[in-house]
Amino acid sequence: MSSSASLKSTYTPAPVHRYRVGDKVTVKRTFPPGHRRTPQYIRGKQGVVERICGTYPNPEELAYGFDGLPAKVLYRVRFLQTHVWPGYAGPANDIIEMEIFEHWLEPAAT
Amino acid sequence: MTNTTHDYYARKSSDHHDHDHDHDHDDHKQPNPANEHDNGPPGEYEIMSRAMQELLEQKGMITAAQVAKRMELFDEEFPYHGAQVVARAWVDPAFKQRLLADGRAACAEMGAMLEAERLIAVENTPEVHNVIVCTLCSCYPRALLGMPPTWYKSRNYRSRVVFEPRAVLKEFGTELPDSVTVRVHDSNADMRYLVVPMRPQGTEGWSEVKLAGLLSRDMLVGVTVPKV
Amino acid sequence: MKTLPSDIGGEPAGPIDTIDHGMKHWERQANAFRSVVQMQKITCTDELRRAAEDLGDRYKDMHYFEITTSAMRAVLLEKGLFTEQELAAKMAEIRARFNVPDEMESPIKKGAKK
């Protein structure tokens, strides 16, 4: 994955977090009902932690009128487009990034 | 737009002194945006939205003045903040560093208070081009760019830009060589995003105001790039 | 598997209309109203998003502010801030204020698809 200076992350500490910037992670491939902010297309995909955004109330509970506490650690994860989309038409260096809460992530197998 | 010879809203304006919700009315000011109307008869959702506002006003939970003020900000202030912030970043490297490190705090320096918790400013470079989408809804830095344009909210943009960003960018007239990494950001949770485009050559010595005039909303979402 | 109607990233879709068509007045009101309701902590973004997703199959046929307005209605009703009857009465009052003839009444009320 590119390590170009222009892609350098800013690190925002969360008091306790399971993953560090640069860790390989896999988004859980699970399809529970309810309000989820993890798009389907990224579930099961492997990426690298780009930054730690901090802790935020859990949207999956906020959505139903609860306070979403304790807050969850939110990461930004970077994925290679050619990995996310089989048949991706662009060059191999294209990337996509998004925010994934810690409870949606697992350590990558490799 | 529906054509109609009946001006329902004109009728409302003429008798609105009878209605307590028009307490902001002031003949000497610009028209209160809360009292302006589209042409044609109001649709069901318009009536529903207005009814909900009035019910919450009656319960003392919100005021018509708050809504009118918000409309004014969305129209007259928010759409201009993004360009002002980026123009500042172009002329002031220290500010740019602060913007990239903590977008929300940097914007606050310039009086732009974001609704969202955090703003991630991403910088275009000769190696990387950034483009923003929210596939799940239409998350957008409204206090910096105003309301998202129609296309940003559209199914076609939300569906496609994640898996064929180069094709989508081309539809906006933006073609990038394969040597440039296209970096798509799906704004799917609590962060909001702002693209900091590359300052075009030929703008040396330009004032911040003149530079801001070069910047369109589309550039700050990353679908187009500034040129002179 | 069941997907949320809003979760459309990666679906094939047509060309982008790159022109901004702006907002109607009522959409500006709906937007400002939503903004105020959230600032007053009456509801939050995720509740409104979830209520939009609850529209299910209707979601894809509705315009953006129709979705957000429907979501607002659902959430405010859920919270007991007004009843269906109160809302219906207020809407009738506003309709009368605007003097909307019956034939222009709600497609929803008539049970039409859209």
Question: What structural keywords apply?
Answer:
heterotrimer; A: 110 residues; mainly beta; SH3 type barrels; five-stranded antiparallel beta sheet; 2 helices; 31% strand; C: 114 residues; mainly alpha; 47% helix
How much helical structure, as a percent, in the residues of chain A? under 10%
Oligomer: heterotrimer
Unreliable sequence segments of chain A: 1-6
Parts with pLDDT < 50 across at least 5 consecutive residues of chain B = 1-33
Give the overall average pLDDT of chain A. 90
**H/E element string of chain B?**
HHHHHHEEHHHHEEHH
| SSE arrangement of chain A, N to C | EEHEHEE
Gyration radius of chain A, rounded: 14 Å
Number of strands of chain B: 4
Widest β-sheet, arrangement of strands of chain A: 4-3-2-1-5
Largest sheet data of chain A: 5 strands, antiparallel
CATH topology category name of the domain at 77-221 in chain B:
Nitrile Hydratase, Chain A
Supply the number of structural domains of chain A.
1
Short description:
The complex is a heterotrimer of chains A (110), B (228) and C (114). Chain A has 110 residues and is mainly beta.
Q: What does this 3D model show about the protein?
A:
Chain A is mainly beta and 110 residues long. Chain A contains two helices and five strands. Chain A is 7% helix and 31% strand. The two termini of chain A are 15 Å apart. In chain B, 43% of the residues lie in helices and 11% in strands. Chain B has helices at 8-15, 44-58, 64-76, 78-91, 93-101, 103-109, 142-145, 150-153, 155-160, 165-171, 208-212, 217-221; strands at 118-123, 128-133, 181-186, 191-196. The longest helix of chain B has 15 residues, at 44-58. The radius of gyration of chain B is 21 Å and the shape is globular. Chain C is mostly helical and 114 residues long. Chain C has a domain at 30-104. Chain C is 47% helix and 0% strand. Chain C is built from four helices and no strands. Chain C has helices at 25-39, 45-53, 64-78, 84-98. Mean pLDDT of chain C is 89; it is low at 109-114. The chains are: A mainly beta (110), B mainly alpha (228), C mainly alpha (114). Chains in contact: A-B, A-C, B-C. At the B-C interface, α1, α2, α3, α8 and α9 of B face α1, α3 and α4 of C. β4 of chain A pairs parallel with β3 of chain B, so a sheet runs across the interface.
